[in-house]
Amino acid sequence: MKTAKAPNAKVARPVKGKGGIWPWLFVAPLLSGVAIFYYYPIIKNFYLSFTRSDAFGGSAKWVGLENYTDLFNRPDLASATINTIIYTLAVVASIIISVLIAALIELPGLRGVRFYRTVFFMPYLAMPIAVSQVWKIIFNGNFGLFNQMLKGLGVSNPPYWLSTPGFALAVVIFYGIWSSIGFNVIILSAGLKSIPHELYEAAAIDGAGRVKQFTAITIPLLTPSIFLLAIVTTIGGLQLFDSLFAIVGTANPAMKDTRSLVYLFYNTAFENNDKGGAAAIAVIILVMVALVTLFQFVMQKKWVRYV
User: Fold this and answer.
1) Could you write out the DSSP letters of every residue in 81-142?
2) Which family is this protein grouped under (predicted)?
């Protein structure tokens, strides 16, 4: 027996365009905050990159592309860019170390998982400037702990790490890797938990060992988390400043060969009082971040696997 349908029955649909001004009032505080603290500074900085003012903050004078011309003619721009790229590549490559640590922490049956997570995450929570001062003492060329250990191992003349250009950058890179592992491990641990355990059981039945399971299951299904860390780490690496400023220091003779792009911005804006030139450097950094991020999003289609 068929049931009779109600005559002229209509499905209720949401009415569009009847919200009025109320939705905009609810999002207005957020939109105004984003506009004031994000978009306006970007637009203002872009405008300042085409102007020049005196050291006492007088009215800005329009100079067109003169700031960019002077910037690309600076001899220290190339070294600052190379140092920034080297640091960024090293820190991004260290994600491999974080993957191995996270995989070891998430091994089935491992005791003290929360303790290990806390230990690795603590460097990320510490104040960068305070920790940088500790690293500055550790790598001191005269009485630093690291050099004392080298002397104990038989090295008679260990290098002055923070005053030698190549070694100073290596110390900053080592600090960047050490301080980022904690955050990386937390993100990767969450990604490992999202992988179905049944896949490992099926692989074990087929005779796959732990190494094969790691390369054929863990790594491919962990690529979304690795991609996220690659984006965040790249952006942070291109903005290298605080650890470099605290560990190496402005009075260090090695700073001229270790400086980054953001330090070049700081030097131009606050030491040389060249606001227009500093704004041009900021625009270059913004363009670099945008292009690298766009490249990563395009390339992720070839290696990131979403379940």
Assistant:
1) HHHHHHHHHHHHHTHHHHHHHHHHHT-TT-S-HHHHHHHHHHHHHS-HHHHHHHHHHHT-TT
2) Belongs to the binding-protein-dependent transport system permease family.
pLDDT at 100: 93
Query: Do residues 48 and 60 make contact, with C-beta atoms less than 8 angstroms apart?
Result: yes
CA distances from 189 to 32, 97, 121, 203, 304 (A): 36, 13, 12, 21, 17
Per-domain boundaries in the chain: 77-126+165-301
Write down the residue that tokens 């500055």 correspond to.
136
State the pLDDT at residue 14.
Answer: 55
CA distances to 248, 282, 288 from 132, rounded to whole Å, are: 9, 25, 26
Tokens standing for 184?
């990386």
Structure tokens at 304: 């990131």
Q: Which residues of the chain have pLDDT under 50?
A: 1
Instruction: Supply the DSSP symbol for 155.
Output: -
What pLDDT is stored for residue 3 in this prediction? 53
CA distance 57 to 51: 12
CATH code, residues 77-126+165-301: 1.10.3720.10
Coil vs helix vs strand at 62:
strand
Calculate the alpha carbon distances from 101 to 39, 113, 117, 181 in Å.
39, 12, 10, 9
Q: What's the CA gap between 267 and 245, in Å, rounded?
A: 11
